[in-house]
Design a protein that fits this description.
The complex is a heterodimer. Chain A is α/β, with parallel strands linked by helices. Chain A contains seven helices and ten strands. Helix content of chain B is 45%, strand content 17%. The chains are: A alpha/beta, B alpha/beta.
């Protein structure tokens, strides 16, 4: 990591709904011509992945990329509560983050890096942005499957908890590990289907997968005409809760992402 | 309530978020609250509970600073190779320095979960500016055997068996009709027994140090609030190790021990959040009353004698 690491924490966006961002500013003599926006996951996955994505941003910055990590509305340090979060809002936030990094870095070229739901949001947001490149790291391909996975996790968590004598079953799942999951978000999540996006998301794309769940994504992206590189890596699925509460940083994945970004934007 | 991202510390490499009460001209506490990382989770906390705590405290007039210790979250790694237990105390003091300079506040309440609670107590012992501490699931000692013998799932499951399933008719019915997960049950209970034996051999050293800390704090006008989730084994260690000193502090009206029923180590449900907030708001608003807490919990927490 760069000894003179230059991180600027700040708020941006509308005064009524300020978003938190962390801008990683590279040394002036090594700035590349492309800035990076990191689209994080949400809920407990956001917490579990924060450490790895922060390190990814530092590594990208070390090799000359200006990087913006940001929190969606109702997530992390941004304003709003989890109950107020909406997919439509998060897409607007992603567009705002792209504009913000362009302004701060003084660059037009942008690469979006999205992990899990952040990957899906990056892909959808790209329909309205002219992007140079995009990295999808284990993206959520089907919102319905993603939602089912969340609810399964919550059921597993409840297995060893005391059940109140009445009412707890009839209320239905409205949260996952302390993060609210109101019906409006569920309905929006269910509509996410990356395989139905026909437009080319970016000129260059890297898809990194550490699990086997995204059948069809590779061939679908190839049909969009993007210059696609697909990597299947043996690495932990860092968004999942660990038994001892540790936060995993998969060096192999980070190295691969930095290497691809550096090659794509020399 | 308004929030501001800040950089502070000797090399301006500690990243924090200040949550200020909205009404700068209105009533405001002369004491600020500082939230210390729970383990290696960054300053939003598990389930974003630190954000909720900060905003709730700001709503009753406190300025609150959440920040990341060096090497955690967004804060950079230190270059001086100082051990974490020393650097974290120094950085908690730097957080106080920053609030003094930026907000003109010179009294502080430290709040931390798990290892954050340990740092809060250590800082309270060495810095007179600390007038209160909220210690959530304060671990008397690190359970070094936990990685091998007793991971988080085992611990949660063990407490579920002992505290709930043992008294639940449906659980007994499953056990007696062959529907229980016997393998899991045996593994959890065996690991618990092993860990308990190994842990108890080491805990006397930690207990002596803990008693000394409590004696030192009893000489000062400081309020200690211990909050535990019901499923956390540390609450028994605390009462065992701090027995007389805790009683003394309680008699002096400077200590409370609260156990949140049916919660787990990270208070990982919205229901847990509500009850945790109620304890914290109730306690802190009584220390320096300005306005009444906005939260009305569904279920009151249990207050236990030390």
């Amino acid at each position: 990591m760069n000894p003179a690491e230059n991180i600027v924490p700040f708020h941006f966006g509308s005064p009524g709904k300020p978003l938190f961002g962390c801008y990683h500013r590279p040394a002036p003599e090594r700035v590349r011509k492309c800035a990076v926006v990191v689209c994080q996951p949400v809920g407990h996955e956001y917490v579990n992945c924060h450490r790895a994505l922060r390190q990814l941003a530092s590594r990208l910055c070390d090799v000359g990329f200006p990087v913006l990590r940001f929190d969606y509305y109702g997530c992390g340090d941004s304003s709003g509560s989890a109950e107020e979060g909406r997919v439509s809002q998060w897409l607007e936030d992603t567009s705002l983050a792209i504009s913000e990094v362009r302004r701060r870095a003084g660059l037009d070229q942008v690469c979006l890096v999205g992990l899990r739901l952040g990957g899906a949001l990056a892909m959808i947001a790209a329909e309205h942005s002219d992007l140079e490149s995009m990295i999808l790291w284990d993206p959520v391909v089907s919102g319905k499957d993603y939602l089912e996975g969340l609810l399964q996790l919550q059921r597993e968590m409840l297995r060893f908890r005391h059940k109140p004598s009445q009412g707890w079953k009839s209320k239905g799942p409205s949260e996952v590990l302390g993060f609210a999951l109101p019906p409006l978000i569920c309905a929006e999540l269910e509509k996410i289907r990356l395989l139905e996006i026909a437009r080319k998301p970016a000129k260059n794309m890297l898809v990194v997968q550490t699990e086997h769940t995204a059948a069809g994504l590779r061939s679908h992206l190839q049909q969009t005409g993007t210059q696609l590189e697909f990597q299947r890596l043996e690495a932990p699925q860092i968004w999942r809760p660990t038994a001892d509460g540790s936060l995993l940083v998969p060096g192999l994945v980070l190295q691969s992402l930095v290497s691809w970004t550096s090659r794509t934007h020399p | 309530m308004k929030e501001e991202a800040v950089l502070f510390g000797e090399s301006r490499s500690l990243v924090g978020m200040v949550t200020d009460p909205l009404d700068e001209n209105g009533s405001r506490h002369k004491t600020a609250v500082i939230l210390l990382n729970p383990g290696i989770v960054h300053r939003v906390g598990p389930g974003r509970i630190y954000v909720k705590i900060a905003r709730a405290l700001a709503s009753i007039g406190f300025a609150v600073l959440r920040f990341d210790f060096s090497g955690i979250g967004d804060s950079s790694v230190r270059r001086d190779h100082l051990q974490f237990d020393k650097s974290a105390v120094l950085e908690a003091q730097e957080a106080m320095d920053w609030l003094s300079a930026a907000r003109g506040i010179n009294q502080f309440i430290l709040l931390g979960g798990c290892s954050g609670a340990t740092i809060a107590l250590q800082t309270a012992c060495c810095d007179l500016r600390v007038v209160g501490a909220v210690l959530m699931n304060f671990p008397l000692a690190e359970d070094e055997e936990s990685d091998e013998n007793q991971n988080g799932t085992n611990r949660t499951a063990g407490y579920y068996y002992w505290n709930f399933a043992l008294f639940d008719l449906q659980s007994w019915r499953k056990l007696l009709t062959g529907k229980a997960d016997y393998l899991s049950l045996i593994r959890v209970l065996t690991n618990q027994a092993k860990s308990k034996f190994a842990f108890s051999k080491r805990i006397s050293r930690e207990a002596t140090e803990f008693q000394a800390q409590l004696r030192q704090l009893a000489e000062r006008d400081i309020q200690l609030t211990f909050v535990y989730s019901q499923g956390d084994p540390s609450v028994d260690d605390l009462q065992e190790a701090g027995r007389n000193e805790l009683k003394r502090l309680r008699t002096l009206g400077r200590m409370t021990l609260n156990v949140i029923p049916r919660s787990d180590h990270t208070f990982s449900s919205l229901h847990d959040h509500e009850r945790l907030l109620q304890v914290i708001l109730g306690r802190l608003s009584s220390m320096s009353p300005v306005r009444k807490p906005a939260y009305v919990p569904e279920e009151a927490p249990i207050s236990r004698p030390a």
